[in-house]
TrEMBL record:
<keyword id="KW-0436">Ligase</keyword>
<dbReference type="Pfam" id="PF13193">
    <property type="entry name" value="AMP-binding_C"/>
</dbReference>
<protein>
    <submittedName>
        <fullName>AMP-binding enzyme, C-terminal domain</fullName>
    </submittedName>
</protein>
<dbReference type="InterPro" id="IPR042099">
    <property type="entry name" value="ANL_N_sf"/>
</dbReference>
<dbReference type="InterPro" id="IPR025110">
    <property type="entry name" value="AMP-bd_C"/>
</dbReference>
<dbReference type="InterPro" id="IPR045851">
    <property type="entry name" value="AMP-bd_C_sf"/>
</dbReference>
<dbReference type="GO" id="GO:0016874">
    <property type="term" value="F:ligase activity"/>
</dbReference>
<dbReference type="InterPro" id="IPR000873">
    <property type="entry name" value="AMP-dep_synth/lig_dom"/>
</dbReference>
<dbReference type="Pfam" id="PF00501">
    <property type="entry name" value="AMP-binding"/>
</dbReference>
<feature type="domain" description="AMP-dependent synthetase/ligase">
    <location>
        <begin position="20"/>
        <end position="400"/>
    </location>
</feature>
<dbReference type="InterPro" id="IPR020845">
    <property type="entry name" value="AMP-binding_CS"/>
</dbReference>
<feature type="domain" description="AMP-binding enzyme C-terminal">
    <location>
        <begin position="450"/>
        <end position="527"/>
    </location>
</feature>
<comment type="similarity">
    <text>Belongs to the ATP-dependent AMP-binding enzyme family.</text>
</comment>
Amino acid sequence: MELLKPSPANSSPLTPLGFLERTATVYGDCTSIIYNDITYTWSQTHRRCLQLASSIVSLGITRGHVVSVLAPNIPAMYELHFSVPMAGAILNAINLRLDARTISVLLRHSESKLVFVDIHSRELILEALSFFPPDEQSPALVLITDYPEPAPDTVGFVATYEDLVQEGDPDFECVRPLSEWDPMILNYTSGTTSSPKGVVHCHRGIFIVTIDSLIAWNVPKQPVYLWTLPMFHANGWSYPWGIAALGGTNICLRKFDASTIYRLIDKHGVTHMCGAPVVLNMLSNSPDNKQLRNPVQILTAGAPPPAAVLFRTESLGFVVSHGYGLTETAGLVVSCAWKPGWNKLPAAERARLKARQGIKTPAMTEIDVVQPESGTSIKRDGSQLGEIVLRGGSIMLGYLKDPVGTSKAMKNGWFYTGDVGVMHPDGYLEIKDRSKDVIISGGENLSSVEVESVLYTHPAVNEAAVVARPDEFWGETPCAFVSLKVGLEKKTTEKDIIAYCREKLPHYMVPKTVVFNEDLPKTSTGKIQKFVLREMAKRLGSSRL
C-alpha cells in the first residue's frame, strides 16, 4: 500500500482546551458551576475563561511561561485550568497546605511569572516571597476573593481576580499549542516518600488521560460532580477538563467534612465524586452517615483501600470504583474494571476483589510488574512481588530540570513507578506497597498494606498505618500507628491489637509495636505520610532493646 503522510487536516495538536468551546455551544444554558450562592452556565464559564486568558496575556505572560495558583476548590481554581493554557502558559497548581518555605522553593524552581492566590492564603504567599533572594525577581500576584465588598487589601498584588475577568476581552482568540507535545501542566509530587519533583505534562497527555478517565469510569453526559478531591492534586485526576467535556455540573466547595458531603449530595443530586481512601473512611465512620436515596459513584485511588472500608462505604449506597495513577501519569491509568459475574459473589469477596487496582485503562498502552534488577516479568500468581511499570500516552514528559531523575524513572521503554505489586492469574494488578514501605523482617519481604487491611477490620480502629521499626535481631519489625474511633465504651490496648492480628496474620507479619495517635500525619490529599511515621518509629529505637 502507498505510504501516506500526515497533513494539516488530520494532524492538528491534541488538546483538552476545545472541550470548553464545544460544551458552551451544546450546553450553553446548562449549569456549569455551583458555589454557595454563585451559579454559572457553561456559556458564562466559557466567556469568563476567555476574558481571564486575555488579561493574563495583557500582564506580559507569553507562551511557555509558568503561571501558578494557590487556591482551594472554588470557581476561580476551576476556571484557571482552562484560562492559563488558553493564554499559552503552563499551569502550576500548588498544594494549598504546604509551608511558606516549600512554596518559595517551588516558585523559584518553576520560575513562575504570575501567581493567583486565594485570599485565605494571602499571608502565606507573602511570606513565601520573603524567602526570595533580594536580587531575584519574584512573580506578580493576583488576589482571588469571595468578598467583593468591602474591597480587600491588595497591597503587593497587581490586580484582583474578578477585575481581570471583567476587564478581559470575551472575543480573545485562544493561544493554541504549536505542537501537542508543548508543555501544558507542571505538577509537583506530593512528597510522601521524598522531596517534591516537578512533573511536566503536555497537551497531548492531558487530552488522552481526560478522555481515558471518562471511559474507564463510564461517566455519562451531564454528571453532577462534587469536588471533594483537591484540584491541586494531579489536577483533580483530569476531571476539570472531563466534566467540561460532558457538560456536567461542578459543585465547588472551599472545605468539607462528612456532614457537608451528605448535605450537598441531597441538595444537588450529586452523581459522582472522587477521593482518597481517607474520604471513604470518613464517610463510613461519621456519626452523620446515612443511607443514600440514590446511588453515588465514588472513585478512589492512592493508598490501597482496605476491603473493610470498601464494604462499609458501599453498604451506605456509594458505588466505589478503584483505580491507580500517579502525578507522573496525569490521572488514573489502571482501573478495577468490574466483571458482571462478580456481583453474584458474597459481599466480603466482592470487597476483596474491588480492593485490587485492576487492569490498564482503555488508552493506556501496557502495564506490567517486573523484577527491578532484570526487568523481566514476574509470575502471574498473585504472590510474587515486583515493581509496577507503565507505558502510554499520558506518561509525563519528564521531571523539570532533573535529567538524572527522569532517566532513572524512564528506562527500558517503561516508566518505573516505585510501587510494589503482584499480578494475579486473571491479569489484574494489586499494589502491595511503595518500594520504600516494604518491611524486610528476618529476610522476609512483608507488605505493610496487608497488615493495615487486617487492622482496619478491627471494630475499634479508625485509621491505621504500618512502617518498619529497627530491630537488633530481625533487622526490621512491623510498627503499627493506629487512631481509634470516637466514643468507644471499652478501652483498646496494644495487647488487644496484637492479639487480634495474631489470629489473622502469619506470626512474622504481626506488629510488634502499636502506637496510638489521635490523628495520623497526612498530605493535603489524605495520604498518610509514612516517611513521618518511619522517623517516629526510628526514634523509638530497636524493638529488641
